[in-house]
User: Fold these one by one.
Assistant:
Number 1:
Amino acid sequence: METLHRDGYQILDDVGANELRSIIDLLGISILETAVKIDNKKKSQVFSAEPMEWHQDSPEARWIAWHCVNPGNSESEPTEILDASLILKQFTEKQIAPLKELRTRVRSVMEAEYSAPFWSSNGSIHYCPWLLDSPSNDQLTALEQFKTCLYQGDHQKISIKWTANRTLIIDNHRFLHKRPSLDQASPRHLIRFWIKEQHAS
């Protein structure tokens, strides 16, 4: 996992079920496993064919792993990732200051809903635009600058085209991810794992 810790992401091909579980065990504990595919009976956007904008998942998960069961249309239905640290390097300390006070609601797997900082003292970030917690005018201005940089930074994104048994792992405290709209009949099927980091006692 040296590549993952250094680069913040890693792509692994032809990963079998046993190998996948071993990788997850090396990284920590899986706290949520989700079949990510179109299911119109479910309300969450992740189960729809709608596009998902740049965001991060719950900060409880240090790592996110997706394992491909069915790639769907791998050319038009990739997962895209972007290193947020590259975006934040474009900001001055004065521009970042409002974001350090910004909070985002967290729909916790482990406990009741709580809020987490956009920017933590350890350098990790948590960005989920639809869960922002009452941003002030200064914070809204800073957020618009951040979003502008995000989409201007699209040339820095990494596009992962899915193949069966391909696994993508990202550092959820560092990388953002998104996806384009899917065909309503798309068979695209990923298994997503939220992995909580285990610190040595």
Number 2:
Amino acid sequence: MNPKSPSKKREKKPDYRERIWSVRYSARENEELEKLAESAGFNSTSTYIRNASLKRLFSRTDAKTIRQLMLLGNNLNQLTRRAHNEGLQELEERIFCVLDELSVAVKQIGHTDDRKKNSEA
């Protein structure tokens, strides 16, 4: 027989979740939360609720704007590659158009953040 080894206590991770909150939802509310979690891209409703309660979520508008920024950034990257291969003169106008669109999108995000900050105050 093997003697039992002394048990070692595991160190808790800094973000270890040891607190439990119990909240009741109606069937309709639960269904709505599940839909919101899914539409926000969360696999878990509890993760969605945790992030929402700690104000870590983007609104759908923010998500759309961020998606738009990513697409515009990708377009700009493609134009930059073409500019290196074909010369900047032909692409200059298109590059400036994409930069203008990026600027507008960034300003939209800034205004959204300002509204959130003002509503929290």
Number 3:
Amino acid sequence: MRLPKRIAALMIAGLLALVLGLAAEHRGPGAPPTGAADLSAAFPPHVSGVAFLETGLLDVPPAYAQGYESYWDALYLLARVIEGEAADEPFLGKVAVGAVILNRVRDARFPKTISGVIFQPWAFESVSNGMMWRPLSNESLRAAQAALAGWDPTYGALYFWNPAKAVSPWIWTRAIITWIGRHVFAR
């Protein structure tokens, strides 16, 4: 019996994630992945207690600290969803997608970890269709780093969608905050 291509792809992606997770355990928890790029030069240094209003960086607690995920796990998982959801969006749109995920982590109505939010059933199309597993771009990694540093160009949005795609009518009942690229961001 042949498995449908979509199910086979998801099974392969799951096995790959398992193997990569086991390899990460060998390096120790919180260790940067092999070949991880130093992306810190792309952003202004964070000075405690100061909000970077001109760049959108806010002095907020990092969302990844609320669960049991290391910074590197959070960075790469967030970057994967950003790549899957916003690969063709401008950099600001990529950061905005990451910010929505982190806003959900901070909101009591959602799971308290990045992986919990990302893998919540039917929460993100790129998780459901496997697009989050395509190759990562440096821009998606930088956007994930900016979102984890506190940059939220959505001003607290919990939802985003592309109005050119079929969506539930319920989503249009949310209070729209802003449009960035082809996505609408709302609370």
Number 4:
Amino acid sequence: VRTAGTYSCTVTDSCGNQKTDELTVNYHTPWTLTAGSPITKCAADTVLLPTTPGLHSISWYPANQVINMPAGLPGAIASTTTDYILTGKDQFECPVKDHWLLSIWPTPVISLGADTTICPEGSAVLVAPVGFSSYLWSTGLLSRQINTSMPGKYWVFATDDHGCHASDSIQVKTFTSPLPKIIGNTWICRGQPTELNAGNFSSYLWQDGSQQQFLTVSDTGYYHVSVTDTHHCSAVADLHIATVQELPAHFLPPDTSVCAGFFTVISALRSYNKYVWSTGETGASIKVSQAGRYQLKVMNEKGCVGVDSCLVVSKDCEAKIWFPNAFTPNGDGNNDIFRLKFPGHAANYHLEIFNRWGQRIFNSNDPSAGWNGDTSGQKQPAGVYIWMVHWSSLDGVAQQKKGSVVLIR
């Protein structure tokens, strides 16, 4: 039946007996179910689902977007807009059904940017984006931006106008501090500038305003430089030049002389780290056979440079009459000529050479001249030859000396 009223039923058995009974069907007004007004929540939030007193056997769909809240109340966890369906029964076991729309506010996004690195003495400004009504930093500050000079991990928790939350974190690191050191001496050589080196960095600023890596100074004092590396981190170094070192001086012997045709040795009177002679030689001493002024530049252990000179004059010295006892005129440039070994001043000098038959085959008045083993363009045979020399000493006394020489071929 679908209509309210009293319904009767009469039955008759096989004996003709009848029995009648009645049933009254009442009409109940259908339950009007209102699940509640649609709401909007943040994607990460959970809200209570509406309940209607008087219903039982309640179910919500989709079931996987529903959880049990405290006290057994159902909660909606959908992160996207969802049409929840409520079903149940009233006290008369009549089924009821309704819809409840749950909308989602746009999920806020917050970014603090990439991790950053600061100089040891520097600081970083961490800025959260606009579009939020409140901010909470890990430091406890509530402003949109904070300033920090300490390395570490920082986070911000922000809330927008709908009460939705977003968070992000950033790592603040510290560059290694530049460690400048001025390379240079703590002394200066008198009258000689010295160079200071600030090392290899991106930029420089010395106390006099210079902006180069190197600074040339000529006096004692305190010198400092501020350097900046490739990370724009700065540091300062200083150097105290405290003393003045005297230059090396008077380190060569007095002026001297050399006999014509001979040599003399000029030596530094003291030991130094470096020597440079005007001849180009770099030892502590040189041999000289020519007259002239010889200059020596030296550097001591402090790097101070000094210059001194020695004048060498030429003089005539009495020759030393000495001849070799053999010679080899083979053209090899070694002992090819028979001559006076130590020529010098020899007045009235006269040298004669004789073969074994007493024939004179060579003679000369020049102390520097000698015999090459030939006579009139003819090579003389190997053998023993006699020589005789006459000269006058410096005091005018006539001198004579003779001997023999072996010609080897």
